[in-house]
Specification:
The structure is a homodimer. By secondary structure, chain A is an alpha/beta fold. In chain A, about 20% of the residues lie in helices and about 30% in strands. In chain A, the strands form seven sheets. Chain A has a six-stranded mixed sheet, with no helix packed on it. In chain A, strands 16-13-17-21-20-18 form a six-stranded mixed sheet, sandwiched between helices. In chain A, strands 22-24-23-25-26 form a five-stranded mixed β-barrel. In chain A, strand 23 and strand 24 form a beta hairpin. At the A-B interface, helix 2, strand 14, strand 15, helix 3 and helix 5 of A face helix 2, strand 14, strand 15, helix 3 and helix 5 of B.
Chain lengths: ~400, ~400
């Protein structure tokens, strides 16, 4: 397959690629304690087994009353109610609130039977031992959180596919749901290729370089909720690569190969990936910088990604492809959009029409807001990204940005 | 100490509180493998032990040449160079490039001694077996990544206090740095109080509620890089609370107590926190909604936080106080600002002048961009936050927002 027959816009490429994925998540499910489910993807919808709150609660410190007993009350013409007692926190009132009666209640405490409102302490005066003056009328329901006001039993409270945040952990536990079914983390095999690449812990000979991509990609996969499986460093040798990629394909949910940087090494990666099954390689070459020599495919139920060997290209393209792929095979539904930092460019940035450009920038505070300083490095070496705080995306219909323009920075 | 003598604006409160922290991080250090250091805070600056790249590399597939041999070359008047051989990936050229000579090199491969430029394959033609035509002149340095172009030996590449991202992991490993000294994760003790609160795994009796805050706060602490220590649920009993808080103070880097919701329970929390040491309680009451009954203090080297019992208030205030406190005691320097999502409000939102308001909103896509729908819940119950995708901050000098206004949403 010759390289770059047609460069595909990244947005179109991603859509075509995702359409070729299996419709359903390909990972299994597991039951985990809710307290350990942070950031996991819920595999089943959750229905409330009981109301929340489970009883009427006071929303202020004050007196639980029948609202009608307070109508017309004012500081000059108070309503006088009989104080029947206090509802201790965590306990039930010993009696009901009948006509002309009141109970002292605390915020979060139970509102006794019969009462339908709470008058704030500030609007009352305890004059005699068993009597309280009400200085302001209360409407029915006032300062009371009704049972089921947050959640009613049988209500669908969480959908399958959401990623659990601190508030969902709390909501589930509030309902006594202490275990939840979540999707397993997708296993993402990462293989590095290149005769020049050696493990990071070895001392490279002249002409050799240490493996960067395996580890930057593993970190990215972990952040995205995947489970990276490092397949090691492979020589630029067809049969060896094929064997390793087939093994990865059989044992993981996504296969990622970072190709060597030369055209022949990239071509070998594409040929190997096209052997794994239907529909095979779908995209070979993106109209994007960095990251043009990207390969996207699907073999059976497993998405395939061939990344450029350049560490910056690999990381940028991984963010655009592997992250949504992990979400998709792992059952995660579309999430909230990522936030951006509005900043002012400090330098001109050239860009070719018809190409998506991603420019690393360093953010700096200024009295007028954030400044985005482009980090140029002619060869996209790894420290280009180390020096950067985020990226600016230049869409294909824009030919460059001028110093002083306002841009949206995607923080790393 | 009477409650709310003076409500302090949250920004001022945070600044006063952080000024009372020890100047240096209070956590220890540990040596961890670089491959496992994602999101950890670097404890020592890192200096490059060697150059990156460590040898001159070709940036394209082509011919390594002496630039001067190509001057004036064109397709109609090519320069003819003697092809001495090929530099295999990961290896050293067998000889030098002398005048009138060239070596075939691949992207990422070593540029042989004597060569100072690489001519792209597209600008050449291999006519005879040991000869290559050069159709375009190369400038010295063209298509060559010089040794040390990314990093020079002795260069300060990373500062102490940065949080390691995928690119830093890659950059460190590229230099052969396989272990790094990082700060330990700050231990954050979390104590829940309230006679009405029972553990999430128990069945509450009427009047009781399950503990939410311990778990939402633990999740938040984990996300912020801290190590939550759950101190359990304490009754509203002074001596019991004091004993538990003293034990937490002695064994953790930050102490958090979620107070009962009633005024007396909050007051008890403030009194206990003020016993732990100097300077003691610094702030009692913030001009913020939700979260007015917040307590901030420092005892010795340990920051103290008293949070409102309401789960939404607790989570909002924790984000504003515990997250920066974890960064500070844990040695993390100011990071990149969090991104925002620009959206259009779908409803009016009231706000009092002189108060910071945080409004939960749900984000919805529309053809005109994101819409932010306020999630109102009169009592800030936990599912208010479950239904929300982020928060809108209304600063104290703004009295409410109108439907249709453009707002910056802080995604959760």
């Amino acid at each position: 397959m010759p390289e770059f027959l047609r460069l595909v816009p990244p947005k179109e490429a991603l859509a075509r690629w995702l359409r070729a994925f299996p419709a359903e998540p390909t990972v299994g499910r597991e039951l985990v304690p809710t307290t350990e489910a942070l950031d996991r993807v819920l595999a089943e919808p959750i229905t409330a087994p009981q109301p929340l709150p489970s009883f009427a609660r006071a929303n202020v410190d004050g007196y639980a009353v029948r609202a009608e007993d307070t109508y017309g009350a004012s500081a000059s013409l108070p309503a006088y109610l009989k104080l029947k007692g206090e509802v201790p926190m965590g306990e039930v009132a010993v009696g009901n609130v009948d006509r002309g009666q009141a109970y002292l209640v605390h915020t979060g405490g139970m509102v006794p039977q019969g009462a339908d409102a709470v008058v704030m302490l500030e609007d009352t005066q305890a004059v005699r031992q068993h009597e309280v003056e009400i200085h302001r009328p209360a409407a029915p329901g006032q300062n009371v959180i009704a049972a089921g006001e947050d959640v009613v039993p049988g209500e669908r409270i969480l959908e399958a596919g959401i990623r659990l945040r601190p508030q969902e952990i709390g909501g589930l536990l509030a309902l006594g749901i202490t275990r939840v079914s979540v999707y397993e983390r997708p296993k993402v095999s990462i293989l590095s290729t290149g005769d020049e690449v050696v493990p990071a812990e070895t001392d490279p000979s002249p002409g050799q370089v240490r493996d960067i991509n395996s580890h930057t990609l593993a970190a990215l996969v972990r952040r995205a909720g995947g489970d990276p499986l490092l397949g090691g460093i492979l020589p630029d040798h067809f049969e060896t690569l094929e064997k390793a990629v087939r093994a990865a394909h059989a044992s993981s949910h996504i296969v990622v190969v970072t190709a060597g940087s030369s055209a022949s090494a990239r071509d070998m990666t594409a040929r190997v990936l096209s052997l794994l099954g239907e529909p095979g390689v779908l995209i070979h070459g993106l109209s994007i910088k960095p990251g043009k020599p990207t390969i996207l495919g699907v073999a059976g139920r497993v998405p395939l990604v061939g990344l450029p060997g350049n560490p910056v290209s690999a990381l940028v393209i991984a963010g655009l492809t592997i992250v949504p792929a992990i979400a998709r095979v792992g059952g995660a539904k579309a999430a909230v959009p990522a936030g951006r930092v509005r900043a002012r460019l400090t330098g001109n940035v050239p860009s070719e029409a018809g190409r998506d450009d991603y420019i690393p920038v360093r953010l700096e505070a200024s009295p007028e807001g954030w400044l985005a300083e482009p980090v140029f490095g002619k060869s996209n070496l790894i420290f280009t990204l180390v020096r950067a705080d985020g990226m600016v995306h230049i869409p294909p219909d824009v030919t460059g940005l001028a110093a002083g323009e306002s841009v949206d920075v995607e923080p790393f």
